[in-house]
Amino acid sequence: MSAVLVMLLAGCGGSGDLGSDAGLATDELVGLDLARREVAPLAAGASATSGRIVFRRITTTMATTGRPLADNLVEGDERPNATIALGEYLIATTELTQGQWRALAGSEPWLDLLDTVGIDAARLVGDALPAVGMTRAQVEAACRSGSPAGWRLTLPTAAQWEHAALAGASSRYSWGDLSQDALVERHANVYLTTPSEPGLALKPRAVGALLPNAFGLHDMFGNVWEMTTAGTSTVHVRGGAWDQPVLQARASNRMQVPVDLGLPTVGVRLVLVRVAE
């Protein structure tokens, strides 16, 4: 595991039975209305808005995590790979946006970063940009206060995150193992040495702007690191960020960031869990 934060780099828990809710037990997409705090089925192709988080149902019961011993381009804590039991879960199709965080938690923690990290507002602030600057305690509080009746918001586990990122693939990234800029920039907002357009990298993008993976999930690689439930004194984050090379974004990689520090390259993707009656 890398202990170095290159440039800028930090859970709530839940359990339940999705099948216990007959009206939502088989829908591929469900939406959380942030104003009403209500969950409802959505039609195929429904997209997230500032007032609604869209979750996709992932039904795979087994998942492979980590990398094979033969992969010499990964770190020791990513090997060997293993197959584990993984129950059904609902994961957000995008990273949480600033508009969604404001509706969920009523705060704007990214504004506190502008003076301390020297990033101008034009690069970091916008309703459709990923929410950043939250500590894990702030995320936990937002999960508790924002969970609708009968449901619980949470961060993904490390296994859920990696499974969702790869969407059934067995490669380093959902699109394969290749890391040429021309391919990567279609799928991930990461640092590129030869971007097709000047200034294409080195700032977060509006969520959902790039191609989704096979599960229909956007920005699992790049844009901002995403918190998981793993870690105690630190938070394990996954997926790389806009200031990192694509190798850092590989699905099996994880970084550790301080549990009590909000950062401009760390955001959140939520999971929605049905609470057992």
Structure description:
With 277 residues, this protein is of the alpha+beta class. The protein has a domain at 94-274: paralog of FGE (formylglycine-generating enzyme). 15% of the residues lie in helices and 18% in strands. The protein has 6 helices and 12 strands. It has helices at 98-105, 113-117, 121-124, 136-146, 158-166, 181-184; strands at 29-33, 38-42, 52-58, 62-65, 82-85, 89-92, 151-154, 225-227, 234-238, 255-258, 266-267, 271-274. The strands form 3 sheets. Strands 2-1-3-6-12-7 form a 6-stranded antiparallel sheet. A 4-stranded mixed sheet has the order 10-9-8-11, with helices on one face. It has a two-stranded antiparallel ribbon with strand order 4-5. A hairpin with a 4-residue loop joins strand 1 (29-33) and strand 2. The chain starts with 28 loop residues before the first strand and ends with a strand. Mean pLDDT is 87; it is low at 1-23.
Element layout with pairings:
Layout: E1 29-33, E2 38-42, E3 52-58, E4 62-65, E5 82-85, E6 89-92, H1 98-105, H2 113-117, H3 121-124, H4 136-146, E7 151-154, H5 158-166, H6 181-184, E8 225-227, E9 234-238, E10 255-258, E11 266-267, E12 271-274
Parallel strand pairs: 8-11
Antiparallel strand pairs: 1-2, 1-3, 3-6, 4-5, 6-12, 7-12, 8-9, 9-10
